[in-house]
Design goal:
Length: about 300
C-alpha cells in the first residue's frame, strides 16, 4: 500500500510580492478637524437663554389666551398682571407682604433643616435609630401640612407660631427622607477608602459620607423649599383671614375678596418669580460649586 505525502515549504517566498508604499498626505488636505459653532448653535448652548425663551413663549400664550377669552374676572392678561405687580411694588405693599412671608418661611425652613439633621444623625448612627427614622417618615410624610392647621391653631394660636409649625412639618420629612437615602447609597468602596485613610468621626462624615450623599441632600433641600412655599401660601390664606395680617397668601386672598383679579395673579406671579430666583441663584450656584464641580453630575 502506497501512501502519499504532502510537503509544505518551510518558508514563504515574498520576494515576488509587489511593494506597498505609503504616500504622505498634506495636512491641508485632511480637512477641518474642528468645526466652529454657528451663532445659532452658540446661543442654543446657553441654558439661561433657552429658559428665557420658554418664559417668553409662556407669557405670549398667557396674553393670547386671555385676550381670546376676554373675561378679566377669569383670566387677566399678562400685561395687566405685570401692571398690577408693578403698582404693588411701587406702593410698597408687595414688598411688605414679601418681607412678612420670607421671614416666616426662613424661620420654618431653618428649624426644619435642624430637626432633619438631628433625625438623620440618629438614623445613620445605629439600627434602632434607622428604624425610628423610617417609622416616623412613613407615618408623617404622607400627612399633608394643611391637615395640621386645626392642631396648630389649638397649640400655638393665631400668628407666626402656627405657620412655622406647619412649615417645619412640610420640610423635615422630605429633607430627612432624601438625606438618609443618600447616606445609605454611599458605596462600600468609598467607605473602605475612608477607613483606609484612618478617617473616623466628623472627618469620616465630612470628607466621605456628606460629599458622596450630597446629590440626594441637595434634592431634599429643593423639595423641602418647594413644600415650604406651598404650605406657607396655603396657611396664610387661613391665618391671614383669621388674624387680619399675613404675607403673600393674605395679599392674594384679600384681593380675591375685592375682585381685583389682576392683583391676585400679581401675587401668584410674585411667588413664581421668587421661586425662580431661589432655584437659579441659590440652588444652581450650590449645585455648580459642589456636585458638578466634583464630577458627580453633568
Amino acid at each position: 500500500m502506497q501512501t502519499e505525502t504532502l510537503s509544505m515549504p518551510a518558508t514563504t517566498d515574498i520576494s515576488n510580492r509587489a511593494p506597498v508604499y505609503s504616500t504622505p498626505v498634506a495636512f491641508e488636505r485632511i480637512g477641518v478637524v474642528e468645526k466652529p459653532l454657528s451663532v445659532a448653535e452658540r446661543l442654543y448652548e446657553q441654558a439661561w437663554l433657552r429658559k428665557l425663551v420658554i418664559l417668553v413663549v409662556l407669557a405670549l400664550v398667557w396674553e393670547g389666551g386671555a385676550r381670546w377669552l376676554d373675561n378679566p374676572l377669569l383670566l387677566p392678561t399678562f400685561s395687566d398682571t405685570v401692571q398690577a405687580l408693578w403698582a404693588g411694588l411701587a406702593s410698597g405693599t408687595l414688598f411688605a407682604r414679601i418681607g412678612t412671608s420670607m421671614q416666616t418661611l426662613l424661620a420654618g425652613y431653618a428649624l426644619g433643616l435642624a430637626l432633619s439633621c438631628a433625625l438623620v444623625v440618629l438614623g445613620i448612627s445605629n439600627r434602632l435609630g434607622q428604624d425610628f427614622l423610617e417609622t416616623l417618615t412613613a407615618m408623617f410624610n404622607p400627612l399633608p401640612a394643611i391637615a395640621l392647621l386645626p392642631i396648630a391653631l389649638v397649640w400655638f394660636g393665631l400668628g407666626n407660631g402656627s405657620l412655622i409649625f406647619v412649615i417645619v412639618h412640610s420640610v423635615v420629612w422630605a429633607v430627612s427622607l432624601n438625606t438618609h437615602a443618600g447616606f445609605l447609597s454611599v458605596s462600600n468602596t468609598l467607605r473602605m477608602v475612608g477607613r483606609n485613610y484612618g478617617l473616623s468621626g466628623m472627618g469620616y462624615l465630612t470628607k466621605i459620607l456628606i460629599p458622596a450623599a450630597f446629590p440626594s441632600i441637595l434634592t431634599g433641600l429643593k423639595i423641602g423649599w418647594a413644600f415650604a412655599w406651598r404650605t406657607l401660601i396655603a396657611s396664610e390664606l387661613v391665618f391671614g383671614v383669621s388674624s387680619g395680617q399675613g404675607g403673600l397668601g393674605w395679599y392674594i386672598y384679600e384681593n380675591k375678596n375685592q375682585l381685583q383679579i389682576p392683583e391676585v395673579f400679581a401675587g401668584l406671579l410674585t411667588v413664581i418669580i421668587i421661586g425662580l430666583l431661589v432655584e437659579n441663584l441659590v440652588f444652581r450656584t450650590l449645585e455648580a460649586r459642589t456636585v458638578k464641580r466634583w464630577g458627580m453630575q453633568n
